[in-house]
Amino acid sequence: MNQTIVEKILASHSGNEFVKPGDIVDVHIDARVARDFGGANVVKNLLDNGLSVDDPSKTCFTFDCNPTGSDQKYAANQHLCRMYARDNNIKVYDIDSGIGTHLAIEKGLVYPGSTFVSTDSHANIMGAVGAFGQGMGDQDIAATWAKGSVWFKVPKSAKIIFEGKKPENVSGKDIVLNLLGIFGANKMLGYSVEMYGEAIDKLSLDERITISSMGTEMGAIILMFPPSEQTLDELEALSGKRFDPVYADENASYDGEFTVDISKFQPMLALPGHPHDNETVVAKKGTKIDSAFIGSCTNGRLEDMRIAASVLKGRKIAPGVVMKIVPATDDIWNICLKEGLIEIFKNAGALVSNAGCAGCAAGQVGQNGPEEVTLSTGNRNFTGKQGKGYVYLASPAIVAASAVAGYITTPDDIPAEPAVFTPQGKMLAQAANKREVSEKPILAEGRVWFIKQDDIDTDMIFHNRYLTITDINEMGQHAFDNLQGYEDFAKKAQPNDIIVTTKNFGAGSSRQQAVDCFKALGISCIVAESYGAIYERNAINAAMPILTYEPGQMEELGLEDGHKIRVDFTSGEVRNLNNDKTVKIQPFYDAQLQIYKNGGLL
User: Which pairs count as long-range contacts for 136-141, CB under 8 Å and 24+ apart, including other chains?
Assistant: First the structure.
């Protein structure tokens, strides 16, 4: 029986002489990977179900989503995976390594005719080398790690034949964006798509990787490239191994065959929102951009870096435009360093980060803010995927040229003087309506939270993982959630509650949220022996009542957790309403009282 590439690979890895579309087969997996995204859940699934790892030599972790470790939860998940790896003799390609799918190709973990699974939805990038790769969920990966194999439904196969000669200004990214324009996001849904033609034979490995990485965006199971001699040579140079590829049988049966004329392809953009919503670069020339990004599993290869450097060399990024460049792997990063590409990027004004997925994965450089217009080489520009702004997708050459111009353009049409931003008038101060400040109470009466702990710092009060929150109404829920024993404070606190604590409350950073979180909960005042210097100013300026007392005064008051007290801000009298004992503490001083009555410094 004549078979397609995917059918031959799945047959050979399931112990079958042949398979056909629709068959369910148990497929042996040659390389089994979990990333920092999903890796911790893979570990949890294994441990919760009492499962061990089938073959550690074929199993590894790749930390590519957040190689900066900038997110607390990613850092915790990464460390959990490291501990599991130590106990189970599993290789970790840690935060200094790069994108897992690219590492698998560079290190020879994946090769023509092999099988690969990962918690990465772009694991089908392995079609670039004529291998079968699939992204999977946490349970699937856990099962594969435990058993060494996993079930698959054999997909239908389709063939695309490319006629004509590829235009010089059309890159691998342009090829896949043109294909998305032709086939959309679902015409190839569920297919293994094989690519043929003289133009395809001439594509470099890096170009094949770019195209394969967006098979997911086409809805395809995989975009499969029969390895050329050039591809085999490149793989041997990377891994030191010579591989025997798998090719389709001459009379293999395909569910669909399509012919496209590559000579008509043009440099393309994906418009914000959908990778398949395309227009030519020429049609959008002159569109002002705020930022530019080169990287991701689609365009973080060495070839991409060299193209970007050739455009940026001797030039400067346009004023006000932010450019971020992230090589796919550490080996590529090091070659960029040796070849002087990093120097070119830095001299142009770009931020160069360590290798990884970058903005596509939300855990590293490349994210954008509301209304920000970004030109990106990523594979996805779904709303919110790379931030809250607008993301166009394009090739590295287009992105680099546009970063220099300040607007979307091509390398052959970079202006002598870049476009500059003009004031929009959106951020000018307007005459504020006079805010009526209601008369502020000079007494606070409420239930006491008596926290007998010195040096409670601002990370304990309001952890730095929440610092992007600017709406005071969202802050209260996080108050004290990093203070041991008080993680549920926000759920139990009631309006008018009073916090009483000891020395140096609010030590640490200058974050205003560590004050505002208590205002959001309706805490009526804070009483402490002393405060961190910045915290004290922040509280007074925000009209948050804070007072200080002398050592021993709370014992004199007979204060216990849960008592009700009344605090007079102007006299300093504190009365314990449970036993009627009183003490005199430091009242508001004049400036504090004035700011308090004004409703705050502003």
Answer: 137/38, 138/34, 138/38, 138/41, 138/42, 138/44, 138/45, 139/45, 141/32, 141/33, 141/34, 141/38, 141/42, 141/117
Q: Pseudo-torsion of CA 230, 232, 235, 240, nearest 10°?
A: -120
Q: Alpha helix (H) ranges present in 471-548? A: 489-492, 513-521, 533-541
**Conformational region of residue 547, where left means phi above 0, alpha means psi within -120 to 50, and beta covers everything else:** beta
For 443-597, which CATH superfamily applies?
Answer: Aconitase, domain 4 (3.20.19.10)
CA-to-CA dists, residue 250 to 3, 5, 10, angstroms: 8, 11, 18
Both tokens of residue 183? Answer: 């086939």
What CATH superfamily classification does 5-156+184-191+216-221+230-247 receive? Aconitase, domain 3 (3.30.499.10)
pLDDT recorded at residue 403: 97
Architecture of domain 268-413: 2-Layer Sandwich (3.30)
The percent helix, strand, coil of the chain (3-state, each to 5) is: 35, 20, 45
Cα–Cα distance, 476 to 518 (Å, whole number): 6
What's the rounded Cα separation, in Å, for the pair 461 and 98? 35
d(CA 134, CA 120): 8
pLDDT of residue 432: 67
- pLDDT of 76 reads 87
How far apart CA 382 and CA 336 sit, in angstroms, is 30
Within the chain, all domains assigned CATH 3.30.499.10 are found at 5-156+184-191+216-221+230-247, 268-413
CATH 3.20.19.10 region(s) of the chain? 443-597
Question: Cα(274)–Cα(280) distance, rounded to whole angstroms?
Answer: 15
- Do residues 195 and 209 lie in contact, with contact meaning Cβ atoms separated by under 8 Å? no
**What does pTM read for this prediction?**
0.80
- Whole-angstrom Cα distance, residue 127 to residue 129? 5
Amino acid in position 494 = Q
- The pLDDT value given to residue 58: 96
Within 10 A of 256 (CB to CB), how many other CB atoms are there? 13
Q: Which amino acid is at 224?
A: M
Ranges of the chain with pLDDT below 50: none
Amino acid 378: pLDDT: 86
